[in-house]
């Protein structure tokens, strides 16, 4: 089982924030390597705790897309809560979040907002953020057969 993790550097505080959308959890490390190591430990611990408690393991509810605007690539993180028809798009670097009731609409809004931001910065001679952004999938140490069905032992006689 794997989960999407987004790492975002912050020059002002000289650290890296790592966020796991499926668990709505973030941590801060001094470097990408430290943040990645901590995320792996926390992810394995969190999944173990859920298994021990007999709780359902959350599905990964995130995806990414790279948008090309003005010759520059911008990653976008999409999250969904299908039960509540709630979708968000997050544009790292700009730290912009957009919400909607459908994935198609949130993608459309993210493109519009990003295009407006890039155009504004170009017209006002303001630099585009150059913060560190990295998105990857982190695997857990656990193998989960099903995330929605409690485990049962079947005895055959």
UniProtKB/TrEMBL annotation:
It comes from the Bacteria. This is HicB-like antitoxin of toxin-antitoxin system domain-containing protein.
């Amino acid at each position: 089982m794997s989960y999407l993790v987004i790492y975002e550097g912050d020059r002002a505080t000289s650290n890296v924030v790592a966020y796991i959308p499926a668990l709505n959890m973030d941590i801060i490390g001094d470097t990408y390597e430290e943040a990645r190591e901590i995320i792996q430990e926390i992810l394995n611990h969190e999944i173990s705790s859920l298994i021990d408690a007999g709780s359902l393991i959350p599905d990964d509810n995130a995806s990414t897309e790279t948008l090309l605007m003005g010759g520059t690539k911008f990653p976008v993180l999409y999250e969904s809560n299908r039960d509540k028809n709630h979708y968000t798009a997050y544009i790292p670097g700009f730290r912009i979040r957009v919400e909607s009731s459908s994935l198609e609409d949130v993608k459309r809004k993210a493109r519009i907002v990003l295009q407006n931001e890039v155009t504004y910065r170009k017209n006002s001679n303001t630099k585009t953020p150059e913060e560190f952004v990295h998105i990857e999938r982190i695997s857990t140490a656990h193998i989960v057969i099903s995330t929605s069905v409690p485990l049962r032992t079947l005895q055959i006689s």
